[in-house]
Structure formats: structure tokens, C-alpha cells
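call fold target=methylmalonate-semialdehyde dehydrogenase (CoA acylating)
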Amino acid sequence: MTQHVPLLIGGEMLRSETQQWIPVTDPATQEVIAQVPCATVEEVDLAVATAKKAFETWKETPVSERARLMLRYQDLLKQHHDEIATILAKETGKTFDDAKGDVWRGIEVVEHACNIASLSMGETVENVARKIDCYSYTQPLGVCAGITPFNFPAMIPLWMFPMAIACGNTFVLKPSEQDPLTPMRLAELFQEAGAPDGLLQVIHGGKEQVDQLLHHPDVPAISFVGSVAVGEHIYRTGTANMKRVQAFAGAKNHMVIMPDAQKQHVINNLVGASVGAGGQRCMAISVAVFVGEARNWIPELREALAQVRPGLWNDPKAGYGPLINPQARERVLRYIQEGKDAGADCVLDGSDCVVEGAPDGNWVGPTLFTKVTPEMSIYTDEIFGPVLVAMEVDTLDEAISLINANPYGNGTSLFTASGAAARKYQHEIQVGQVGINVPVPVPLPFFSFTGWRKSFYGDQHAYGKQAVRFYTETKTVTARWFEDDIAGGPNMTIQLK
């Protein structure tokens, strides 16, 4: 019998009253593994109202108690790490190792939320004027909402609701309808950790449910991760409704390879960073920029990519799994054909990839293009598949100019043995996250995930100190006390017995 994914409202797992259900399919077989509801207007309103009611008491909860909830939660997540990863792998198609990484990166953010007491500290200055002191507090906003994508169904929800709730807010999560089972298990464990009923609500659906949250007067803040088009819609609609919004959008991440880099390190890192997870990562390397004589390494890169084989989630030899759905596969295949039609040289073509035992999977093999120019769609657009574009320039300055002309600014990396080249690159590049001899420079949670330009809309980023600023408001108090008001007068003496 097909599983019907519940809603989580007020601490209870509820079957939706909706008449609209979306099938959740195994991307390797197209088997329907669950049905996820499009929550009704009344159910979304109930989720927000329940969260608003819970906020009245949660905001008064001492910060140490909020930290202890996160300590219990991270412990439960660690105990159930492999179980969550198995659920994740089955519904996304990710390899088991990749799925475990997804879960662990989320756990690291929960660990960071355990430090909420020190992260929430305000500022104090004594005697800003004569006998006048000034100090600030951070206070929570209320009901925050999160809309998360399919590609990291554990990590990205854990970017959001633990930090928001640790800050004293309550939260409504709308996970991707394509893989809702993992977020629901995260929510179950949060309840098991002792979260009071109503702190976390989970609703399901699509654009209609998202728009209801964007217009809801009792939701002051929205967090989003997803595509550029949706991110722009979220940001425009949310801010038009006077909400605080952080919207993480698309990317076109470049790796620059200097001729003094260690060749084998470059090839090994570039293969994993480009086709790992099937390229379905906003921090995937999709453009390799070879400087000078480094261009001679492209044939060896092709050979290394050709050795990567996609496969089923539980195949230990699989390099990555299928794309999330048939539409995603068709989109990637369309870009591959556009690259060929535009005159790029497809030196490795994964269009006809077949995986034994899974003929209906959304498979695309590793694909490599050379002779690419900046106006081609395979360069300008985020393909979100295992497709790598190789470009050649003569100097580091040309590489920097190429990347800075690109509208995206999520991540980039430079491989070099030169400290001077690294210093120049990290200073001049207009990208939010830079790796030096690190292919995918995703920061650990005590820093923030800092995409720039068209990769991010908003002011405060995810996790780290910026997340605390996003999920709180600052209240500044200027205080003066008159000594004449001291009982007994200013010359009162205290006798010690």
C-alpha cells in the first residue's frame, strides 16, 4: 500500500483533507513510493496559527533550555544517521555515501545551534553619556517559514529550522514535494527530542502553498533555497509583503586551474566536484577554466570522467545516482544537444547512459565539452546535471574577468601552488565563497553560506552569525538612573553585620 505523507501540525502527524496528492517516485525505477498532499488553505492557516500560539511561550523559554533541546536533537540525529541516509538515498537516488554526507552536514548546523547562548549575546557600553548606559538584546521575530529544494532534503531543512527555533522563533517548513520522507523523519526526531508541540510545523504542496505563506500576515520571515526563477519570485513577493527574505538561488561555479597546480590533485578534485551527486548541487563545479599550459591536461580529465559510472543508491561502485525526475533528465539532454548545435566539442557524451538493472532510471552519464564560448547556453545557464564545460584562457587576469562577467556568484575555486596568485584571486573575484585548492568551498556552520549576486537575494545568509541576525531583531536600550532615587539618598551607607 502506498504511503500517504502526513502533515505535522501542533505536534501531531495528520492526514491531509486535500483532494490533491502528488506522487513521490523512485528516480531509479519510476516506482511510486509515496503520495504527498497539497495542503489545503485551512491546513496552512492552522499550521501558522498553531506556530503563532506556540511562539507566545517559546519566546520566553530561557536560552539554556533552547540549547539543551538542540543538544538532544543532534544526539538523536547521530543515533539515526544511517537510517535517515537510507531514506534519503531511496527517495533521491543519491548514493549511500553521498546521502550520509547530506545528513552529516545538517547535523553540523544543529551542533552550531547548540551554541545559541553565546551567539545571541548583545552589546553593552557603560557611560555613553554621563551616567547613561546603552545595551542591546536580540529578540525573536515570531513564525518563520522555510521552503527547501529536492537536492539536499536533510541538510537544507537543518540549515533553517534549528537555527530559527534556537533563536526563539517557531517554524513552518514546506519541504520539496519530490522527496518529503527525509524531512518528515527529521521532524519526527525533533518531536522525540522533546520539542514542545507547535514549535515545528510541516506542510506540503507546491506554488499555491508557498504563495500562501508569502502573503500570510503572521509570517514575518521566509528562508528559501532553489532555482533562480523561483528565488526571484520568493524574494519579490515576500518583500512586497514586507517580509524579511533570504533566497538562495542558482549558480555557475568555476574552477580555475593554474599550470603550477598539482595535476593529479586537480583532476581528482574536478571529477568529484563536477559530476558528484549527478551535478545536482548549487556548489557543483560546472566550468573548468584552464590557464596557459594547464589546457594540456584536458585529455586526462576526459579519461578520468569516463571512468565514473552512475548507479543505484546501494551500489558501492556507483559514482552518483540518477537525476531526480524524467523532466530533469530531459532538460540536461536538451542542454547537451544545444551545446553540440552551437559548435562546442562534446568530447565525452553521457546522453545515452544505461544502468544495468534499472532501465527506467533518469540516467545521464558524465559529459565534457570543450571549445565553449561565453555566449553558449551550456555556459550561461545552470544545467544542474553531470555536465562539465572546459574553457581555456592565457592568463589569470582573463580567468578573473570571465568569472566576474558571469551573473552568478555562489562559489569558485583556484588550484595553484602560488600564494601570490591565490591572494590576487581571492581578493579580486566577485564570488561569495572561494576555495584555494579546495574544489567545493562550502563553509562550516560557524561561518555563513555567503553566495553573491544572482545566486542570492537578501541581506543575511544561512547559518553562522548571519543566521542569528536574520532570525532575530535587535533591541537597543539607553538607560539613566538618578542617584536621588536611591532609598536613603545618594549618601546612604550600608552597615555590614
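return ok
The two ends are 79 Å apart (CA to CA). The CA atoms of residues 370 and 390 lie 5 Å apart.
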